[in-house]
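In full, the data.
>
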Amino acid sequence: QVQLLESGGGLVQPGGSLRLSCAASGSFTKIYGMGWYRQAPGKQRELVATITRGGTTNYLNSVKGRFTISRDNAKNSVDLQMNSLKPEDTAVYYCNADALVRTSVRPFWGQGTQVLVSS
């Protein structure tokens, strides 16, 4: 199995910055796509940013220009640098990774880390 350990959430004022980190561990052969999703109270989980093993990125429109996703394939880790944070960015952020386990590629999720943007 694959465990995803997230860190870096917290309380920040509007306009501030946070950096989320996620590292994968466990029994897998390779990590393919990685990403961050978020879920605000009363809303569905939404994709924030994804990155392929080759470095191709994709962002939610509302975070483009403010958030940057990056990964380290050697460390099986992914980060999300969040700048110019807004109250509407408040949510639980989840790390996601598509991992090759035995002969199949399956999605795995972290436990979530809370981001609260408030003055």
Q: What stands out?
A: The mean pLDDT is 97. DSSP finds no helices and eleven strands in the chain. The longest strand covers residues 91-101. Residues 32 and 53 are 5 Å apart (CA to CA).
